[in-house]
Write a structure and sequence with these properties.
Blueprint (H helix, E strand, L loop, with lengths): L5 E5 L4 H17 L2 E9 L19 H15 L10 E8 L2 H11 L4 E5 L6 H6 L2 H8 L4 E4 L14 E5 L4 H17 L2 E8 L15 H4 L3 H16 L6 E7 L2 H11 L4 E5 L7 H5 L2 H8 L4 E4 L7
Parallel strand pairs: 1-2, 1-4, 2-3, 4-5, 6-7, 6-9, 7-8, 9-10
Antiparallel strand pairs: 5-10
Length: 306
């Protein structure tokens, strides 16, 4: 089983982040892990029109600003102070929140980052991508993202059904290992989903709808046998396993399946067989993170360098 000894919770003190903290605390208890509360003081990001997100004027000392951030970390964790969790609180100052988060995660050898998908990204999300997406992309460890729908889930968290989209790459093999570890901890049912992505032709080229599963009638059976072998070779388990094959756009099929089967957690690789598409439009994982109604655990190969 994969161990989680150190959990990092980056916060921007937004109401959404406050709700996400509940999940970080729950997981720290579940894994018996240390919890790191972290806030990045980003230069030029203070909002004078929003007192909830405003630090003192830049003419005040950096130490005063750091103290305010530290006090807010203390306040945010006050409701959980009596729990038997070893907690560390840290503030860092820099020009980029996601870079400070990544560097701290590397420095402390963090095993899991728990972060909300909404916060104070504003227009930067449209221009450069949100802080969360950059953390998912560059983090040295798995990242659990909690969206606006996922925070409505009651605690203690129940993980009865885990969905793992597979493309048979080494990346999805790594995600599968994490899914099995979490599944064995919670006693979950494992859902393996393989999506056959249909090619897109110009309107003048094709006169009908192309359906891979109709043309290759034996593809579902072959894919399910491949999934059985893939699971046995990479993460053998006694968990109950459901195997499904669908055709369509991967992120759409993943999200639809998650809704249909009441999935509690999606575990995905941040890289796979997406090629140039990842750089042009963002990876399938990133698109699922934005729309998923349940938490999403993003995993990459440990040896991978960005």
């Amino acid at each position: 089983m994969i161990e989680v000894k150190r959990i990092l919770f980056p916060t921007d003190f937004s109401p959404h982040a406050t709700e996400v903290l509940k999940f970080a605390v729950h997981l720290a208890q579940k894994f018996n892990a240390e919890l790191y509360l972290f806030h990045a003081i980003v230069l030029y990001e203070d909002d004078p029109n929003n007192p909830d997100h405003r630090f003192p004027d830049l003419t005040e000392s950096a130490e005063q600003i750091k103290q305010i951030a530290s006090d807010r970390l203390d306040s945010s964790y006050a409701d959980y102070a009596g729990l038997p969790i070893k907690v560390h609180k840290e503030t860092r100052r820099g020009i980029s929140a996601y870079q400070e988060i990544i560097e701290f995660a590397k420095e402390k050898d963090i095993d899991l980052i728990v972060i909300g998908t909404h916060g104070r990204s504003g227009l930067s999300h449209l221009l450069l991508g949100s802080v969360t997406e950059k953390v998912v992309r560059y983090a040295p460890c798995p990242v659990l993202t909690i969206g606006k729908e996922a925070i409505k889930r009651p605690l203690p968290l129940e993980v009865k059904n885990i969905l793992v989209p597979v493309d048979f790459s080494t990346y999805s093999a790594e995600a599968l290992k994490y899914a099995v570890s979490v599944g064995e901890l919670y006693g979950s049912r494992l859902h393996l989903l393989y999506v056959v992505e249909e090619p897109v032709y110009p309107a003048f080229y094709s006169s009908g709808t192309f359906n891979a599963l109709q043309i290759l009638s034996d593809l579902p059976q072959r894919a399910k046998r491949a999934m059985t072998k893939f699971l046995k070779e990479n993460a053998p388990t006694e968990l109950k396993v459901v195997k499904e094959v669908r055709d369509g756009k991967p992120e759409d099929e993943i999200l639809q399946y998650a809704d249909e089967k009441k999935i509690d957690l999606i575990v995905m690789a941040t890289h796979g067989l997406s090629g140039l598409d990842r750089f042009l439009l963002g990876s399938t994982t990133e698109r699922v993170i934005r729309k998923a109604k349940c938490p999403v655990l993003s995993v990459k190969l440990k040896k991978e360098e960005d």
